[in-house]
Amino acid sequence: MGIRVLEVGQLIAGPFTGCLLGYYGAEVIKVERPGEGDPLRTWRLLDEGTSLWWRSVARNKKCVTANLRTEQGREIVRRLANESDVLIENFRPGSMERWGLGPDELLADNPGLIYARISGYGKDGPYASRPGFASVCEGVGGFRYINGYADRPPVRPNLSMGDTLAAMHAALGILMACISKLKDPEHRGQVIDVAIYEAVFNMLESIVPEYDRLGEVRQPSGSTLTGIVPTNTYLCADDKHVIIGGNGDTIFQRLMRAMGRPEMAEDSRFADNAGRVEHEAELDEAILQWTRSLTADQVLEQLEEAEVPSGPIYSVADMFKDAHFHARGLFETVDVNGRPLTIPAIVPKLSETPGQTIWAGPEVGSHNDEIYGQLLGMSTAEMAALKEEGTI
Fold first, then answer.
1. Of 306, 310, 186, 313, nearest to 239 (Cα)?
2. Torsion of the alpha carbons at 6, 9, 11 and 15, rounded to the nearest 10
3. Domain ranges of the chain
4. For site-directed labelling of 150, which of 76, 83, 162, 330 has its Cα 20 to 30 A away?
5. What is the CA radius of gyration of the chain?
6. Residues 163, 184, 272, 297: which is the catalytic one?
7. Phi and psi for 220 in degrees, rounded to 5?
8. Distances (CA, A) of 363 to 21, 35, 58, 119, 304
């Protein structure tokens, strides 16, 4: 990729942005606090004291340490920013400014710097100073309201979805800023402002115009998709669930015939989506009666033959056993302290410049000598002194 990225964030949104860029060839220098490093190192399941999540999200990164609460540590970050094309941070708004590391200060010294900021609510507005946890921002951004069942509390996915969506938006913004910089005669950088709640809000499809024009507030709908029928999750005879998307007009007809219900395929009430929406309960009950008479494999085999979109619901164990996942190269093996570890590959796939995992997330400060000695030109004695005083 040919760009150097300075990552000074922590936990999920900022680090996943750096992970995406590093996978496709950016040199990513991750700054952590001395000693413990990024808190993500100890989140979720650990192996030999380090999070397995860390080994994936910190892949290909060069990890250095700097104490941002000291002037010497902040000066190190300034010097690194002067040598970088991109800076990523996801601290609470105002933190970088308090440390003298805000975009006004850093772009004054390095006008070409692309400064990507990720926070809960953005850099301005009445909520800007609020702590931005993805769990809360998923609610404010509208996702939690529509996710789940109408008769139960809103449901969260068992993932940090808001953080991941924000990271993807940040990576997209960085790439667009890189293109703009290439076209700018002065090669100027810019500030990218990503809010987690806005990344979630960006996924709401037609919810906003439907409310504005028709006053419609979309409600949670369980495993269905409001206004699109039939598309649902159905229980089979072996207590497994399958997903069936029979919502195209001709697809619906093929589905009904595969179910042995040709009369429903020809019923004028179901000829288009509007009619099927009106009779959603009747259609779902007919499909469920059919799926409950067969095993999941039998249902999927018949629907594949009928060219009806359908599929199982996979756990990670199912993914490991699936030949298609392996054929598509979705698993990569890295070495961690002499032992192999499987981590997920990153998409999209690029034909000419494919990404790759070169090394797993490294230990705290493992690249101090390389970055501080070679990039910043520090002597061994200088680095030893900084380490002794707790700066690195």
1. 313
2. -30
3. 4-202+329-388, 231-312
4. 162
5. 25
6. 163
7. -65, 145
8. 20, 10, 10, 26, 47
Give dist(CA 247, CA 13) in Å, integer: 35
First to last CA, the chain: 28
- The whole-angstrom separation of Cα 179 and Cα 187 is 10
Predicted local confidence at residue 1, as pLDDT: 72
Both tokens of 185, joined, read: 């005669």
Largest CA distance in the chain: 85
**Phi, then psi, of 182 in degrees rounded to 5:** -65, -35
Any catalytic annotation for residue 124? no
DSSP 375: I
For domain 4-202+329-388, the CATH superfamily is Crotonobetainyl-coa:carnitine coa-transferase; domain 1 (3.40.50.10540)
- What value does the mean pLDDT take over residues 35-52? 96
Q: What residue spans of the chain are helical by DSSP H? A: 13-23, 52-57, 71-82, 95-98, 103-109, 134-140, 143-146, 161-183, 196-201, 207-214, 249-258, 262-265, 273-278, 280-291, 296-305, 316-321, 323-327, 368, 380-388
